[in-house]
Amino acid sequence: MIESLPRREREVFEVLCSLGEGTAAAVRTALADPPSDSAVRTLLSRLAAKGLVAHRTVNQAYVYTPVEQTEAVAETALQRLVQTFFQGSAAQAATALLGMEPRLHPDEIEMLQRAIDKARKETE
C-alpha cells in the first residue's frame, strides 16, 4: 500500500514512522522542502482516511501515529532502495551500509554473522 501513495503522502508517512508520533507541526519540521501547515494537515488527514494514520487529541492538538507496523514499512522502503540503487542486490546494499559505519558494536557484528550463517545454510 505504501508504494501506491503519492510522493508527498509517502514522505509524510515515512517521516511520521521515523518520529514514532507527532503533531502536524513536528512532521512539517522534519520534512525536506516542507509544504504549508495546512497542506501537512491535509496530507495527514488523507493518510488517516486510508487507515495508515491514527490520531488522538493532546492539549487541543492532534498527535498522529502510524497504524501500520513500522517494521513492514521499513522493509518496503529498504526493498525499494535496494531495487533502485543496488540493482536488487542485498549484498551490495549491505556492503554500502557497512561502509558508512566506522565502528560496529559487537552485538551488531554478531547479528550480522547470524544473518550470514543463515543465508549460507539456505543456499546449501
Automatic annotation (TrEMBL):
SUPFAM superfamilies xref list: Winged helix' DNA-binding domain (SSF46785)
Top-level taxon in the UniProt lineage: Bacteria
GO molecular function: DNA binding
Keyword terms: DNA-binding, Transcription, Transcription regulation
One Pfam match: Penicillinase_R
Annotated GO biological process: negative regulation of DNA-templated transcription
Family: Belongs to the BlaI transcriptional regulatory family.
Protein name (record): CopY family transcriptional regulator
